[in-house]
Amino acid sequence: MESLVDSPAWPKIVQHEKPVIRACCTLSGETLVGPQGLLVAGFLLPVHWELLKNRTAHDMDTDTNPTPANPEAPKPSVGKQIGSGLKVGLVIIFLLVMTGMVYDMFSDDTPKADPAPVVAAAPTDGEIYIDAKAIITKALKAPSTAKFPSSSYATITRYSDGYKVSSYVDSQNGFGAMLRSDWSVVFTYVGDQVEVHQVVLDGDELYRKAGE
What we know:
single chain, 2 domains, alpha+beta, rod-shaped
């Protein structure tokens, strides 16, 4: 005899993506996915269980007592068995729905937004002045003797694509004498590197970027 559990009509629930809510029910060869499968399974599982329990009890009673003591005793009808199973099914569905609602409340399925690109902060006047001094120092006869004033004695002009710094420096010339020289540099930042466009010392243009 074919077992009721092995029959094609026995509903089967499997986990799919999310616990509890994502379920499928195979009913007479047709697979129902999601809420439909959940509702069908919630109704049919208790009904099948009641039928199976009564059939098992009846078979055990038949094997133990081949001749029933009271053959006229009324037996529970299939309708009552199904009604009892449906009541249990409603309770199961309620519990499943409540569990799913609680799970969805605490689960975070919101797509994660891509992080905003990091925009480098504009350099301060102090940082610009330090880089400008480093550029002009390389153009001096005796770089180690250079003495620069504070940034308050420098003129810093900001352009849309670069910076111009003008100031003065005291340093030794080729004969060892300390001289004051006016200077200006124009440069930009490319990433974390300094790109020099122009260097002027004592009115002489010592460098200009090609093409400018």
